[in-house]
Amino acid sequence: MRELLGELKEDGETAAGGGSARSAFGDGNGVGSADAEGSSYSQDSTQQFSSHHDVAMDLINSVTGVDEEGRSRQRILSFAAKRYVNAIERNPDDPDAYYNWALVLQESADNVDPNSSSSKDALLEEACKKYAEATRLCPTLYDAYYNWAIAIADRAKMRGRTKEAEELWKQAILNYEKAVQLNWNSPQALNNWGLGLQELSAIVPARDKQTIIKTAISKFRAAIQLQFDFHRAIYNLGTVLYGLAEDTMRSGKPDVSPNELYSQSAIYVAAAHALKPNYSVYRSALRLVRSMLPLPYLKVGYLTAPPANNAIAPHKDWERSQFILNHEGLQQADASDQPPSQSPGHLDRGRKPVRINIADIVSVSACADLTLPSGAGLCIETIHGPTFLVADSWEALDGWLDAIRLVYTIFARGKSDVLAGIITG
């Protein structure tokens, strides 16, 4: 959306500088070049289109902006809207023209005076109609589904926790789902999908809430797996886990310990803050959840490990013991490493503990291998070779995968000192 304004401004300046209006808003903006003879509109269709176009243009022209910058931007948007209307009149089957017109309407809605919610909603409603037409003409137009979902979500936010908002959130979620189906490699769409589910969970009956929340968690996690330093998705996963912990605490019938959920939440908030330490929202959230971490570590839990230097040892020789993760690495806990309020591990003191330095990690992945003991397999590939461990469950494995990847990502971004300050400061 924000890139649109720059493109429009550049094109508008070109037109003002002496170039023809058509060349200024030609192929570079995706407007079709078919001429008027290509139109298949009947007279009734033309009249209907003209009516819709008048409504949309009136809405755009009614936006004045709240300051000089806003007014300048709106003049550019109005100019662009006229070009897209002309393009559709020449070729009513041009999905790009409808898509770009929808973007102009959506951008105009952002330019509305904050005290005029009705005008903003009307602009977004018109934008949704244009996105619907664009996707009807081109069902594989990923960007249209994505921005359409954003427009619907903005309309839902205006309606609070009402039945109408619930229906709008469901529509937005369906469009995010369609966008991801068309482009699976879109962490932002997955993140927004998760946010939509999170908002929906606050409206639906309590019996439906947990299922929706778990789906939201899976979307945030999928976004992070596509982009390990996607701090917004990392933070959002932390907030949804915190909310789940609160709900679990209130219900009195936890499937998972509320303390475990709080601790998981704190890991993601801490990671988001480490990646973006200047974000005040992350800093405030960290103050709330830092005490929920197993300080002076980021994560403490159980994994089953083979004897040192014998990854293919018989299953009976593998041992379930406590592991600790901090900014430096992952290692089996011994008596001197026990964090506060943690029960001691069962590590045989005659065995050499597993130690993996973050700087040595090449990749971290789940693995299902019959040579491993039962459970959820974890493979940590390092410059010294692979280390195989087994988590108690696949759900527990997700937590370990995320935590190790996040610590490595923070290290790779040169922010290990920030994470160290969080857990040891």
TrEMBL record:
Protein name as catalogued: PH domain-containing protein
Protein's organism: Sorghum bicolor (Sorghum)
Region annotated Disordered, chain positions: 1-48
Compositionally biased spans, kind Polar residues: 39-48
UniProt cross-references to PANTHER family, sorted A to Z: PROTEIN HLB1 (PTHR45005:SF2), PTHR45005
Gene3D superfamilies assigned to the protein according to its UniProt record, in alphabetical order: Tetratricopeptide repeat domain
Basic and acidic residues biased stretches: 1-12
Superkingdom in the source lineage: Eukaryota
